Amino acid sequence: MAYRKLAIDHLDVEHQQMTEQMQYLSTKSHAEVSSLVDQKSAAVRAAISRGNSLEALEKALSEPPYGRGMEAAQSANAQLVSEILMATRAQDIGSVVGDLSDDDRD
Fold first, then answer.
1. What global pTM score does this model have?
2. Cβ-contact 62, 81 below 8 angstroms
3. How far apart are CA 105 and CA 45, in angstroms?
4. Predicted confidence (pLDDT) per residue in 52-93, tens digit
5. Which residues lie below 8 Å from residue 67, measured CB to CB, with a gap of 6+?
6. Alpha-carbon distance 65 to 46, whole Å?
7. Among candidates 15, 31, 14, 12, which has minimal Cα distance to 69?
8. For 47, which of 39, 51, 56, 73 could close a Cys bridge (C-beta 3.0–4.6 Å)?
9. SS (H, E, C) the chain
């Protein structure tokens, strides 16, 4: 007797296969990706200091780091997005996210 209507174990296998395939798509080295995240971080913090959360969030979401071995850069990028959302007033978060492009919201 199955309790789940969705076979989530199957989805996990598909996700793992996609992650393994994506590692080969990255054409940048670890150093290049880390450098890009650091540059992005400076631009995002400047936008936050100007009070432009939308610009900061768009910059943080552009060119996300991906691939095997990029966990540090991925974590730094996620922390950057978190900082933007924490710096944005709670009542403004919905409108800022709503103003993002469909690709950025995905």
1. 0.69
2. no
3. 20
4. 999 999 999 998 887 777 889 999 999 999 999 999 999 988
5. 22, 23, 24, 25, 26, 33
6. 21
7. 31
8. 56
9. CCCCCCCHHHHHHHHHHHHHHHCCCCCCCHHHHHHHHHHHHHHHHHHHHCCCHHHHHHHHHCCCCCCCCCHHHHHHHHHHHHHHHHHCCHHHHHHHHHCCCHHHHC
Angle at 49 between CA 44 and CA 54, to 5 degrees: 55
User: Whole-angstrom Cα distance, residue 89 to residue 14?
Assistant: 37
Max distance between CA atoms of the chain, in angstroms, equals 57
